[in-house]
Amino acid sequence: MHGIMRAKDGHRNVNFRYVVGPDMQLPTKIMPLSYSPAETDSLMDLGERDAERTIYNLLYKTEEEITNRIHSSLEIRFYNKERQQKHEESMRAVFNKFMNREIHKVELGKQKKLDENAQKEARHGPKHNSAD
């Protein structure tokens, strides 16, 4: 977090909106690259679970997740209330645009899969269950 805050302070015109971090406390070491294979596997599992939770929240709790991100301690704060409100509206618009684009990609992928299955069925006939 300290590195992120320093980067934000040194690059005030950059929007660090996609900073993602774990919800849980991670183990620390003096030599960060000295984790054992078991520790590495555990950290990978934690990261995967955290990523799955974030994706779920973005897809199914979009407004709540957007609000949490806008009010994150990493987000820029303005002392001028009007400027803060404009900033939050802008962030909400960016997140909504991003989410709409991602949801559109998912829908296109689903349609492509349905089309592929329909083409296979047209070539090979419908699948029959062996119990039929």
Explain what you see.
The model has no long low-confidence stretch (mean pLDDT 79). The chain has helices at residues 2-10, 37-60, 62-70, 81-124. Helix content is 65%, strand content 0%. The chain contains four helices and no strands. By secondary structure, the protein is an all-alpha fold. The radius of gyration is 22 Å and the shape is flat. Helix 2 crosses helix 3 and helix 3 packs antiparallel against helix 4 (81-124). It has one domain (2-22, 41-124).
Order of helices and strands: HHHH
| Global geometry | flat
User: What proportion of the residues form beta strands (DSSP E)?
Assistant: under 5%
Q: Report the structural category.
A: mainly alpha
Q: How many H/I helical runs? A: 4
Could you tell me the mean pLDDT? 79
Number of domains as seen in the coordinates: 1
Low-confidence spans: pLDDT under 50, at least 5 residues? none
Multimeric state of these chains?
single chain
Q: Say how many strands there are.
A: 0
Radius of gyration, Cα only, in angstroms?
22 Å
The biggest sheet amounts to: none
- How far do the termini sit from each other? 60 Å
In which range does the helix fraction lie? 55-70%
